[in-house]
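Is BV8 placement plausible here? Inputs below.
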Amino acid sequence: MDAAKLERAVEALDQARLVVAATGAGMSKESGIPTFRDAQEGLWARYNPEELASPQGFRQDPARVWGWYNYRRRLIAGSSPHAGHRALAELEELVPRLVVVTQNIDGFHKQSGSSTVLELHGNINRFKCFEHGHPVDIEIPPAAGDGPLEPPKCPRCGSYIRPDVVWYGEMLPHGVFEQAENFARSCDVMLVVGTSGIVYPAAALPMAARVGGAIVIEVNTQPSQLTQMVDILLQGPAGEVLPALVTGLAARGPGGGHA
Ligand code: BV8
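Reply from A.M.:
I modeled the complex. Tokens:
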């Protein structure tokens, strides 16, 4: 990782009043959760996530889609946040205000201690019914096995239960994106971590930050669709770069230079 770029990023964070961390699937890669750009694994290799993560896909084959989410829930249940997630929770103590805006549905940011987390695409361990969106608060432990799986039925209306996540072609949860956009427009620094910048409207947030005058710092193992418009690309894994930023900032001592 480029030491001079890291120092510039630490300096920007040291001057910031409001920081937004916008994270994608690359944030959870070092927890062992495959990203969407990774080829799907094993049984799911033949399917395109966009097909499975859609109302059409669920309507066409509920057992296939529920089986895919069951597999991913088991992966997530058997994994945990890594040093990069913990670094974002520590960063909250070193800047006046930090908001995490994530595309991820694994719940790892809250689990690792971040106190303000906007889940743009919902949460894989929250459920609702497919037909009416009835919230479903029964326990549904991930089942063993890797294939298609008949989804449980809604206790209220009998329609299939689905994960409370945002599928392709679905609106984001009411108000969440607008809140994220407001934070993006008014932040001083946006950390964009582990996202290819392909999926909208989440991919529009870094530009909103830039238009609002923020310094945009990308953390990614390789350039993305966003790289040409960020101020600094810290090329490396989130689990190494984010702790390095926290170490650099903490070394400056309390309140050093906060605007
Ligand atoms: C909507 C939840 C509006 C479910 C997800 C054509 C043009 C533009 C837009 C569209 C279009 N056609 C359709 C659309 C809209 C569509 C869209 O953007 N499609 C894309 C494919 C073009 N968007 C939607 O449908 C959204 N809704 O627009 O509604 C509307 C208007 C009117 C009426 C109705 C609706 C809803 C999108 C949400 C979909 N749900 N997830 C689930 O998870 O199962 S999306 C899902 O994929 C993720 O949540 C995430 O958003 C996306 C994956 O992207 P990333 O997170 O960036 O991950 P990716 O794998 O791509 O990249 C990983 C990155 O990490 C890489 O850069 C890699 O280098 C890096 N990396 C790897 N390892 C590390 C690392 N970085 C750091 N450290 C490491 N160790």
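Short version: Residues 62-77 form the longest helix (16 residues).
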